[in-house]
Amino acid sequence: MGIQGYSAAERLERLPISGYHRIIFIIIALAFFFDSMDLAMMTFLLGSIKTEFGLSTAQAGLLASSSFFGMVVGASLSGMLADRFGRKPVFQWSIVLWGIASYLCSTAQTVEMLTLFRILLGIGMGMEFPIAQSMLSELIPAKGRGRYIALMDGFWPLGFVAAGVLSYFLLPLIGWRDIFLVLAVPAVFVLAIRFFIPESPRWLEQAGKHDAADKVLLGIERKVRESLGRADLPEPVALPRVETVPGTFFSAFQQLWSAQYRQRTMMIWSVWFFALLGFYGLTSWLSALLQQSGFAVTQSVYYTVIISLGGIPGFLMAAWLVERWGRKPVCVVTLLGGGVMAFLYGQSAVFGGNVGLLITSGLLMQFFLFGMWAVLYTYTPELYPTSARATGSGFASAVGRVGSLLGPLVTGLVFPITGQGGVFALGALCFAVAALVVWVFGMETKGKTLEELTQI
C-alpha cells in the first residue's frame, strides 16, 4: 500500500501521459527494435548462408527455425523468472545474452555451430519480448497503454526494414558473418535500461516489497511533475484491489490455468501459435523464395525490404484503432486481411512473377500482418494479473515460437511439393484459424485498467 493508503496502480493510473512516459517507451522500444533486427536478419542472409554451406531447402528451413527453438525456451523461462524476481533484471540479462550470441554467430565456421549460436540468440530474444510487453503495460496508464504497446511493436517492422537495408548495403561488401558482428554492438544498450528504466511498482507491491514500490513511485511522480512543469498531480481514483499472491516459481503458471484465466490462456495460446506459424512460414523465406523464382540475391533483398515497408503504416493504423475499435475487432480484421493478401501474394508469384502485382500484394500483406503483431503485443499482457502477467505473456510467446519454429521448417518441406502458391495458401489458412479463435473466444480489454480486467 502506498502513500495515504493508495495502491501502486491507483498512483500510476492517475498520472497524465508525460515526456517521462515517452522516454521509458523509447528505451524499451529501442531494445525491442535491436532484437527484432537481429531476428529478422536471417530472412535476408538465409539465401547466402544456404549457398555457402550447400544446404538443401529442408536444411535451410531447420537453420531458419533454430532461433525460434531458442525463443521457446527463453520465453517460457523469462516470464516465470520475471514474475518471481522482477522485470528489470531479466530484461537486462536477455539483452546481454543476445548480444553475446550475435557475436558468436559471426565466428561460426560450420552450419552446426551457426545453428547452436542461433539457438542461444533465440533464448535471449525470447526472454526479452514478453518482458518488454509486461514492463510497458504496467508503467503506462490505461488511457495510453494500448497505443504505446502497439507503437512499441511497430519497432518490429522498423527493425525488419533496417535489417534489410543493412544487408542490402553490407552483404556484398563484408559477408554475412561480419553483419552478425555489427548486430552484437547494440547490446551495450543495456546500460540505458539499467539507469533509466525503473522496476515495475505493480510487481514490487505484489511481491510484498511495499517500501521499494513507494520509493520507485515517488521517483516516477517526481519525474512526471518535472516533465509536465507543474507541482501538482491529479488525485488517485479507487481501483479494484487485487489480492497479493505469494507463491513458488511455478505458482504463476498454475494461475494461468485457474478457472478465471483458463479460457483466456487457451484462446491466446491458439492465436499466437497459428498466427506465428503462418507469419514465419512466409517471412523467413520471402527473400529465399524470390531467389528461387529467378531474382538475383540483391534484387530479392531489395524487393523484400520494399514489401516490408507496408508494415509501418500497418502498425500505425493498428495503434490508432486499438483505442477506438478495441483489441478484438482489430485483431480479427488484421488476421483476415493478412490471410487474403498472403494468398494473393503466393498466386502473383506463381503466375509469371509480375513484379508490380508481387510488390502490391506483398505491401498489403505486411500492412495487415504487422498490424496483427501490434494487437497481439497489446492484447496479451492485458489478459493476466500482475502476479502472472509476465508468465502469461512469456508462455503465449513460447507457444507462438513453436509455430515460428515449425513455420520455416514446414515451408522448406512443402515448397518442393506445392510450390510458392501452396506455401502462401497454407499461411493464409493459419491466419484464418487464428481470426476465428479470437472472434469466438476473445474478450475486449479496451479502456480498462489492468486491475479491472482481473475482475472480469
TrEMBL record:
<keyword id="KW-0813">Transport</keyword>
<feature type="domain" description="Major facilitator superfamily (MFS) profile">
    <location>
        <begin position="24"/>
        <end position="446"/>
    </location>
</feature>
<dbReference type="GO" id="GO:0016020">
    <property type="term" value="C:membrane"/>
</dbReference>
<feature type="transmembrane region" description="Helical">
    <location>
        <begin position="23"/>
        <end position="46"/>
    </location>
</feature>
<dbReference type="InterPro" id="IPR036259">
    <property type="entry name" value="MFS_trans_sf"/>
</dbReference>
<feature type="transmembrane region" description="Helical">
    <location>
        <begin position="58"/>
        <end position="78"/>
    </location>
</feature>
<keyword id="KW-0472">Membrane</keyword>
<feature type="transmembrane region" description="Helical">
    <location>
        <begin position="300"/>
        <end position="322"/>
    </location>
</feature>
<feature type="transmembrane region" description="Helical">
    <location>
        <begin position="423"/>
        <end position="442"/>
    </location>
</feature>
<keyword id="KW-0812">Transmembrane</keyword>
<keyword id="KW-1133">Transmembrane helix</keyword>
<feature type="transmembrane region" description="Helical">
    <location>
        <begin position="329"/>
        <end position="349"/>
    </location>
</feature>
<dbReference type="InterPro" id="IPR020846">
    <property type="entry name" value="MFS_dom"/>
</dbReference>
<dbReference type="InterPro" id="IPR005829">
    <property type="entry name" value="Sugar_transporter_CS"/>
</dbReference>
<feature type="transmembrane region" description="Helical">
    <location>
        <begin position="398"/>
        <end position="417"/>
    </location>
</feature>
<feature type="transmembrane region" description="Helical">
    <location>
        <begin position="148"/>
        <end position="173"/>
    </location>
</feature>
<protein>
    <submittedName>
        <fullName>Niacin transporter NiaP</fullName>
    </submittedName>
</protein>
<dbReference type="InterPro" id="IPR005828">
    <property type="entry name" value="MFS_sugar_transport-like"/>
</dbReference>
<feature type="transmembrane region" description="Helical">
    <location>
        <begin position="179"/>
        <end position="197"/>
    </location>
</feature>
<dbReference type="Pfam" id="PF00083">
    <property type="entry name" value="Sugar_tr"/>
</dbReference>
<comment type="similarity">
    <text>Belongs to the major facilitator superfamily. Sugar transporter (TC 2.A.1.1) family.</text>
</comment>
<dbReference type="GO" id="GO:0022857">
    <property type="term" value="F:transmembrane transporter activity"/>
</dbReference>
<feature type="transmembrane region" description="Helical">
    <location>
        <begin position="355"/>
        <end position="377"/>
    </location>
</feature>
<feature type="transmembrane region" description="Helical">
    <location>
        <begin position="266"/>
        <end position="288"/>
    </location>
</feature>
